[in-house]
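Progress against Task 2.4 (sequence-to-structure conversion) is shown through the following example record, which the project officer requested during the mid-term review.
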Amino acid sequence: MVLVCSGLSFCAGLSFFQGTVRADEEEKDLTKPPGLWKRWTRYMDPTLQRVIELDLWGISTPQLPKGIWKIKYSAEHQKATKKYDDFGNKVPIAPTLEFPGINEGETLFTMDLQGKSGGGEGFGHTIQISYGMTDRLNWYIEFPFQAAEVGFDTTYTPGNVKSWDGYNKILFGKFNNVPPSSILYNPLYPLIKDLDLRREEDFWKWVELMGRPKLKTHYKSNGWDLGDIHFGLSWNYYKGEYFAAATTGRLYVPTGYQPDANNNIELFTGAGFPAGTRTFGLSTTQGFDFRLPDPLKWMVFNIEFTYEYRFKTRRHAPTFPARTQYYQGLYKALGALEPDIAAVFPDLSQMGDYYYITYGSSFDGEVGLTLNPLQILPIGIKYAAGWTQKPKIESQSKDFISYVEGVEIVGEQVKHVLAFGTGISLIPFYIPLNIVFEYRIPIGGKGAFVVDQNYKITTELFFIF
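Structure tokens generated for the chain above:
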């Protein structure tokens, strides 16, 4: 078994330990059989000595030595109640709908779809298994999971209009004793004659009459939702005393959980939260480490760049209820007078059973510095940034495309993060384990969630057969 440098450069543990690898043959009592601990340390010493000789320094480039396995588990907490708008301002994740009246200064209603307690919180759980094929070439597979709870605390406020009877008559279609040939004919009149937009429950009934289901306001994972499994190879193709470089290639497979189309936050039909994209994808990471010469050899800089591409995939379309003739006419009138409001009620009659989405390209990068003057407890700081393109939506329904783009839950995203980390190696105690802690602070972005309370704990266990 062996502990290998990774994350915050736990080569410090090996450096600290280097002078303690003993010649056990000089210490053992030949008349007494060695105990369990003695046998364990004897078993580890040769491997530790070999790893020390490899000088596995760095953050982004070290690989597992040949024959070494690693099991890594990470738990990351995240909470989001806001997102960045196109100008970098923090705004609620869900929009507020305001329906103006006909007269100046009138508001028919306001619907705050997020409310005071809306947002999401949860943990990401990652299990990674990797193996040193050679001292420079590693293989890995990673299983990401997610346990999330998302909710919308919808808050409805009736407006300040004076003629409620008039608005209720028009918006609900309260026209009785009109011939079926009339554009005012509403066969649902007996069911809607007592509805009133001053009541929230009647507002949601009006929403359904206008051709979309009531927003599902709560989602909670049933255990751990599986994300997109990925696997690949990592190669430390150059390693010197002060500079090292490595490259990683990976393939994503479409295993990620996707909520029902009628309860999906990406479509703003509900709070259902996906785990991954459930698409095939390819990705590559380029990592570089720089180490200063003595007496500052304990300072390591690292740079990483990652590019990822996700391919087109087919998704089930949401099923919005069909509108009757009267409400279809009302929808067209809204489209002319209040297009932003009308966009919330897309016409999906020509959509079919599926639509297509291409998540496309994303770039991520980071620059970090790790300090470890005592060769025991490293401290790291890094700046990370990422960009994700606006997904391409393809559908027979132009209204659906406009609707998804309009709610802006899924769009172009930019994020900037500052992270701090530290960790400890238990290698001096012959326990092949790393424990790493990291805390991330959002410092800016565009279109992305503002992720608060973002901390991660990682454990890495190393062994050899």
